[in-house]
Description:
globular; 34 strands; seven-stranded mixed beta sheet; Maltoporin, Chain A; 66% strand; 1% helix
Amino acid sequence: NWIESLPKPDNQQRQTMSDQLFKIQWNLRESHVVTVDLIHNTEFFGNNGLSIVRPRETTTNFVRRGTTLAVSERRIIGGKLLESMIQWSSRHDSDLAKGTDLLEIRPQLWTGNYFSDQRGHVQRWHAAQSIVWQQQIGGLTHRIKAGGEFDYVDSSLQLDRRRFELFNESGALRSSVTFVGPNSADLHNLEYGAFLQDRIVLGSKLQAEAGIRYDRERLVGRNNLAPRLGFSLLPRGTSRSKISGGIGLFYDNVTFLNIELTGLQRRFTTAYDDGIPISAAVPSSVHVSPYLHNPYGLHWNVAWENEWAPRWVSRIEYIQKNGHDQTRLAAVDTPEGFDILFDNSGTSHYRAVEFSIDRPIRTDLRILASYIYSNAEARPSLSLDFPDPTVEFLPEAPVEWNATHRFVSWGYFPLPSHFNASFSVEARSGFPFTAVNDLNHVIGGYNSHRMAAFFTTNASLEKQLPIPFGNGKRVAVRVGVTNLFNHFNPRFVDPNVNSPNFLHFSDSSRRHFVARLRILKK
């Protein structure tokens, strides 16, 4: 990506991703299969945060490396399907500054190096067992599934934060922030889960499903029971028309990072007026509520699928999610200023209507189009880098990823000379953002502004060629273009009302070409 308003070569961002998959499957018997999966992935994002306000030296480089090894077994014994899995995963993350020079933040330009270096490692052991069977009870067919799972998670975080300063547009010092204390924390967690679900065949037209899930994690120490109900109805007695729906409770795990922050550096802020300190350094710490528990949501949906003509299938779905006891970073008044509390004071609401049409003509030819109208709101949380205590008094507001209108279409089809083509189109409303001042405090309504609308078209061509002396193996060569029409899709806006570049958009991914090479067996 390039930032057009910056001089070369300081206007470039680099992003690379790679995934490697190694899979072995043993069919010991027709009813007994063992599979081993080894996955390794890497991601690099250079000059993260680059914009007309943040030159390259103030950005960070983000790196993520992950490895997953899983062994699974599927076996049928006495008419029952047993599935077992043992999985180990490891992930290393780092988000590092370009140096240790003092960061000076001005509305029109940042100078120096970013004030923090973050490194993390998460290791997870996962074991799961499930069993599926079918039986007749009271003249009805019951398809029952039960299972349990266990996770052990080990997380370590190193966060080095250095002093930085904020200035107003005239160059006068407004605030100086320092950090004192340890820079590393370790966290361990045990997670338990169990479930039972029963799909009841009430007739050729109607099926109902009831289930319950149990979860518990040691960090919170609470037992969570989540019941769920669903149904599927064929009003005409055929699969050409189906009405389905469901309702249930869903619990989430708590975020490790916010708990680990309680053992890390304490923040001290000194306020200035025209460069003159007006108070002593005010401390601010991160705490965890002693009453912290798992957030949960009540989700329900209803959908209607209908085949209007052979292989022309439409779907209309309404989705609603109401989040309760959501975790957030809250501001708590102290005699000196305020502390940050990780608690369950958050709420959220999501509502969406989706219209889609699908045309699965053949296995090598398919076209799909979907339009979603949605609204997602939540109670804002304080920013860790630039906490603003007035956020505590704000009501629910649009979330950062809220796109009111979104249209997506994709398809693939054959071409002459044994070529295969594919395309995708996406158009959506711009994401919301918040205007701030030179102290990065909220000005006006939270997320009351919007980015420019997003539109992109991607296309690709692929051809399979035999490999000489390859015993039937083939090579699949694919070339494609992203953002075919080179539409300006900004990812950054200057939200600072004190900046001369206020509401200036930048950082758009230009048209670029990609290639992929695969080796296929017979």
